[in-house]
Design goal:
6-stranded parallel β-sheet; 207 residues; alpha/beta; homodimer; DNA-binding
Chain lengths: 207, 207
DNA sequence: CAGTGTGAAGCACTTCACAGCC
DNA sequence: GGCTGTGAAGTGCTTCACACTG
């Protein structure tokens, strides 16, 4: 398939959240205008985004919420369970693993790793913290799909290398570090420091 | 000044991080090529990004690390202290407030708020959790610059409204909700669910 | 006739390529 | 000679506008 822009995929996530909220309120259909209003974009953008994957609406009528929900879930790969491992038994990892929305969407935390001997073996949000040295052997056996990296910046690249070596192809990196991955591995960065600096820039340059 | 793209501002943050790391290793100058390699972009992009704000390099030589560091800090508004309040005394807020990098860059947490009576009054990372109802009065007195929102999605919009009403002009939203702010208020969203769905999409559609 | 689906136009960001300067 | 600074060209995302259809 033709390459889809990252911005498009992010908007699909937003549309899906709207559909879920909207369905809960008992509605059966919606329009590109409604979706656009919720997502903070335009109706043309919504229709264009969806058009990359097919035509899911009815002219003159709009979109069936149930149908479009199913389509978006399928497009986003949410029709199955994804196994997630968390590397770094700290607060960020914990915030993630206890967030109900993940389980709802099929992201299941199957293991937590740390390199601190004081943490290894202790209970942690329904898991037992494992030694990071076990990652490769565990991965061969349990085949997780996604690794969430929530460790200090200095350790980020070596741990990414380990994760990649183990054969995990998707990484969500919370470490405030610029890390490299080989082709075939998908990396997303969430950098809170960068976001705050973006706000700082905006405040500094507001009129 | 001409409008600067969000992507440019984000890269400036990355450049700054590189300069800080690089200075620590004793180097005095660097080049657009070095910066590009670290940031995962091209040297032309680096030079273009910087050119929006002036010309900070020396042809044939490169950039003085000390000088460019100072310039970037100034551009990003990091030359002063920003007062931050955290709304939601949970794990995400805690992870943020204990992260050393923020204090280093001049982001100082001055208060933490929650609506849970069991949390209000108890100690929390060097603060005492305050009642969310005190936000407006406190803001009038203490003049925080930035609010970090780390609460459940359902409560997000009302709390954003309260923050805006109190007069805070920059919000970092961790709630997985699409919230609206009036013109003049800068909002950044960090949505972990969306990032994971982006990975799910990539895994689903990998070849 | 209301609202989708889509080629075409518009716009913004990135890359190129080279003049300019140390 | 080497590397910056920058107009011009290129690319890709967004918006427009309208044909189409239930």
């Amino acid at each position: 398939m033709k390459h889809i822009a990252d911005s498009t995929v992010r908007r699909l996530s937003v549309y899906l959240r709207y559909l879920e909220e909207h369905a809960a309120r008992g509605h059966a259909t919606t329009s590109s205008e409604d979706l656009a209003h919720y997502a903070g974009t335009t109706s043309a953008q919504v229709r264009k985004d969806l058009s990359f994957f097919g035509s899911f609406g009815t002219r003159g009528l709009g979109y069936s919420i149930a149908e479009l929900t199913a389509k978006l879930q399928d497009i986003l790969g949410l029709g199955r369970e994804w196994k997630v491992v968390i590397v770094g038994a700290g607060k960020i990892g914990s915030a993630l693993s206890t967030y109900r929305g993940f389980a709802q969407r099929g992201f299941r935390v199957i293991a937590v790793y740390d390199n601190d001997p004081r943490k290894i073996g202790s209970p942690w949000d329904g898991q037992v913290v494992r030694s990071i040295d076990a990652l490769e052997a565990d991965t061969a056996r349990e085949r997780p799909d996604i690794a969430v990296l929530a460790i200090p910046a200095d350790d980020a690249q070596p741990e990414v290398d380990r994760i990649v070596r183990a054969g995990i192809a998707a990484i969500l990196n919370f470490a405030p570090a610029q890390v490299q991955v080989p082709p075939g591995v998908t990396l997303k960065n969430v950098n809170m420091a960068m976001e705050l600096e973006g706000l700082s820039y905006a405040l500094r340059n507001r009129d």
